[in-house]
Amino acid sequence: MMQNEREPAQRLNWHRRDWLKAGIACPLGLGLAGWLPRLSPALAAPANPTNALLRKPIRACIVVFYYGGPSHLETYDLKPDAPAEVRGEFQPIPSSVPGLQVSEHLPHMAQIMHKAAVIRSMHHGNRLHDSASTETLTGRQSPQGDREEFAPIPQFFPSYGATLSHFWRDRGLKVCHASLPWVFNNVIPVPCQGGGFLGSAYDPFRITGDPVKIQYDAEMLHIPAGLNPQRIADRKHLLNVVEAGTQAGPPARPALELDSLYTRAYDLLESEAVRQALQIDQEPAEVRQRYGVYTEYQPGQTTGAENGYGRNLRGQNLLVARRLVEAGVPFVNVYDFKQQGQNWDTHADNFNQHKKHLLPPADKALAALINDLDERGLLDSTLVVATGEFGRTPRINNSAGRDHWPDCYSLLLAGGGVVGGSIYGSSDKIGAYPATQPVTPADLAATIYWRFGLDPHAEIHDRTGRPWKLADGWPIESLFS
After folding, report:
1. 113-141 pLDDT per residue, tens
2. Alpha-helix runs per DSSP H in 88-138
3. CA 112 – CA 374 distance, rounded (Å)
4. Is the pTM of this model over 0.85?
5. Which of 275, 150, 139, 299 is nearest to 217 (CA)?
6. Has domain 54-218+278-480 been given CATH number 1.10.10.10?
C-alpha cells in the first residue's frame, strides 16, 4: 500500500483495470482499494501495454534532469519523525493536496501539487554519477556497469528522445529531439545523451546557452556566409542528382545514415519555427521573471556565470523548453547543471546548498513551467519529468552533507494525463529503501514510451541486428487512470 497521506491517491493503487487483469470482476464503487494488497508487477502487467491506454497519447515530453542528485529527504519525501541525523533541518509544509507535504523550500511547487504526482520509491543499483545518469536517461544500465567515465566512450543504448526520433522518423518533423543548454559533464560527456546504437542521425538537436548574455543558439541553424536559400536549394538538387547517378543497388547502412544527416541538415536550415523558439527575448519580461530572476550582465563584468554554473540559465532553460514544445518539438531534455562540483552533489553543506542555491530557482522554474503549459492548453498533452540520477543518503555525514543514494529516491511527474495530487510508492521510515511499489528507471522508460502511444516492449535493433525491447519495465498505468 502507498503511504497513507491522501486517500484518493492511495486508491490509485488498485484500479478496476487491475482487477480485470487479475481475472477478478470488481463492480465500480466497492472501494476495495484501501484494504486489499496490490498484485506484483509480474501478475498485474498487461499482456499488451498499448491496449491499456485510456487517454490520448501525449504529443511532447520535457525531461528536467537535476544532475548531481537532489536529496529526496529535502524535497518530496521528508521524514519529520525520524531521528535528527536523518530528518535534517528542513520542515514539511502543506501543499494544495490535503495530506501531501513537501519541503518548506518548495513553496511554489506546494501551490500546484494538485497538478503533479510524486513517485517516492524510485531505485536502481548505480552509485556513481555517470552510470546512474545513463540508466536514468536510457532506462538501462550502461554496458560498462557502475563506473565513472574518465575517458570518452561510445554510447550504446539510445536516449528516450533518440528512440522516439527513430520511431517517428517518417513523420517529417524538423526537430524531434532537442537538448539544452549544454552537454552535461563538460570534461567527459556522459554517454546517455545521444542516439547510441541507432546512430548519430538520432542525436539530439543541441542548443547552447550563454549564461552571461542569457541567450540560446544552435550551430545547426547557422547558414554559412554567402549562401542564400536559392543556392542551398541548388546544392541539394545537385547532391540528389549525383547520388541518383552513382547508386547501384540498395544503399548500405552508412550511406543511409549519411543521407539522413544531409536531410536533417537541410530541414534545420529551413526550420524557422525552431529558430524563433530560441529567441526568448520575444517573451514579455513578466513571463521571463516568472521562470526565475535573471540579470543582464555587462561585457567584461565578472559574474561567476561564465564557469558553467549557469545560475542565470536555470529558469530560462525551462522557458525555452516550453517554447520548443509550442514549436512542435516532441522531446526536450533540459540539463540543470553542467559539471560535477557545481550541481546537486551535496556531499558537504547539504542544507545551505539546497536552501540558498539549489531549491529556490528549481522550485520557481518548475512551477512556472507546469502553470505555463496549463494556461496554454498544453499540459494534458505534455508530460513533464523532473528527476536526478539518484537521491542522497538517509543519514547526514560528518560534513553536514549527504552522499550518493540510488536505493530509494523521489521523482516528480506532471501533465501528460497524470492524475494530479497522486503519490505512488513509499519509502521506509528513514527514506532508505522502498517500502511499497518499487519503481525502476526501466519502468519510467516504459511509462514515457507508453504515453507516446508506443508499445514499450516493441523491438528495436542495434547495429549487429540484435533485438532489444524499448524498455524492460512496465508502465505505471495507475498514475494515468
Report:
1. 999 999 999 999 999 999 999 999 999 99
2. 107-110, 129-138
3. 11
4. no
5. 275
6. no
